[in-house]
Amino acid sequence: MKITDVRAIQPVGENSPADWRTSLGQILVAIDTDSGITGYGVGGGGLAGMHVVKTVLRDLLLGRNPEEISQLWDEMYQATLAFGRKGIAVMALSGVDLALWDLRGKHEQQPLVSLLGGKPGKKIPTYRTVWDPQELQTISGHAGYKLHLGKVAAPGQRELMISAIEQARSLIGPDPLLMVDAWMKWDVESTIAISQEIASSRIEWIEEPLSPDDLAGYRLLKEQSAVPIAGGEHEFTSAAFGQLIEEQLHSVLQPDVCWCGGLTELIKIYTMANKAGLRVCPHRGCEIWALHAIAALDPDPLAETGRPWMTWVAGQPEVKEGTIELSDRPGFGLLFDEQNLFLVN
Ligand SMILES: [Mg+2]
Predict the structure, then answer these.
(1) Helix 188-198 vs helix 158-172: angle between axes, to the nearest 10 degrees?
(2) pLDDT at 153
(3) Residue 206 Cα, ligand 1 centroid: separation in angstroms?
(4) Domain architecture of the chain: domains with CATH
(5) Distance from the alpha carbon of residue 186 to the mean position of ligand 1, in angstroms
(6) Of 110-124, 147-161, 268-282, which gets the smallest average pLDDT?
(7) What are the DSSP calls for 153-217, one per residue?
């Protein structure tokens, strides 16, 4: 089997981000082969990510055997090393890697969960992310809920945050998990203080209180936070996660498979974290790209609900009564309306 073309588009759906300047400007990568099979993956970086795919990665992949995923990953990483390593180039590479995995599953006529040693059909518990505690009045059935404080996490809004967290706990009741996402807007001092104030609300984790580059700060939080720390949503490659795991800087690791280097890297992260006894809870885990790894590799699976703009990825399983399960369709098991998708770009 040989790769005959590599295509990338940024599909537009209802609620799509306006352009590439958010981490969520997702791109669809399609890899065609001479056997007639096409693999699909989603990466990040929007138009900038598409440019990396079309001008660097495509040239490297044409004529190559798509089954040599690990070798191709290393070559793509090397080809983007001078301007890549983290950020847009690795987000683009992630989409290509996922498309190669989709091809492998389709070629072997197996769902990826089976190739990774698991089985389709297992019910995976989910947690729902909300941006306003009021949303929790009308949602139920999930194993947990995460209050995203991105809009109010600025300095000076501490009382507002604390009361929102307390309100969230009272709305969901005593049993479900409750998490808090600070979206890189706190510092060490405020995280320690807030963790002490919210510990009585039984918070499962505080997510990304600091910049992912502030490893010194995370070393302090590891010792002094009253609530476990989660992170990794904005980290890239298994090498970087290897350091987080080795130093146990996060109790919960949250790689985003569409950004961190694809399934190739997520598998390595799971292997390292499982060995170290740390939890992996992939960002947007209910979206299909991470769900196969969660179902096959996670000893304590918990999938975060997906984002509403990914409506163009047809065939994704839906959350039902708080759980989600994979079909037995080959590869990622998706159904693309290719003609419509590629005509609009
Ligand atoms: Mg987050």
Answers:
(1) 30
(2) 67
(3) 10
(4) 3-109+336-343 (3.30.390.10), 114-324 (3.20.20.120)
(5) 13
(6) 147-161
(7) -STT-HHHHHHHHHHHHHHH-SSSEEEEE-TT---HHHHHHHHHHHGGG--SEEE--S-TT-HHH
Mapping DSSP to helix (H, G, I), strand (E, B) and coil, where does residue 134 land? helix
Mean of the per-residue pLDDT values of the chain: 94
Measuring CA to CA, which residue among 254, 343, 341, 314 is closest to residue 27? 341
Instruction: Tell me how far the alpha carbon of residue 176 lies from the centroid of ligand 1, in angstroms.
Output: 19
Give the pLDDT mean for 24-49: 93
Residue burial 38-48, b: 16+ Cβ < 10 Å; e: rest: bbbbbbbbbeb
Question: What is the CA(55)–ligand 1 centre distance, in A?
Answer: 31
Q: How many residues does the chain have?
A: 345
Residue 144 makes CB contacts below 8 A (sequence gap 6+) with 125, 127, 128, 176, 177, 178, 179, 204, 302
Compute the average pLDDT of residues 166-189: 96
How far is the C-alpha of 317 from the C-alpha of 27, rounded, in Å?
A: 20
pTM given for the model? 0.96
C-alpha 104 – ligand 1 centre gap (Å) = 30
Give the pLDDT of residue 259: 96
Q: How many angstroms separate the alpha carbon of residue 233 from the centre of ligand 1? A: 6
Residues serving a catalytic function are: 283
Query: What letter would DSSP give residue 272?
Result: H
Q: How far apart are the first and last CA of the chain?
A: 28
Please give the Cα distance from 231 to 217 (Å, whole number): 13
pLDDT of residue 22: 65
* The token pair that represents 81 in the structure block: 């090393």
- What pLDDT is attached to residue 79? 98
Protein residues placing their CB within 5 Å of the ion ligand 1: 181, 207, 233
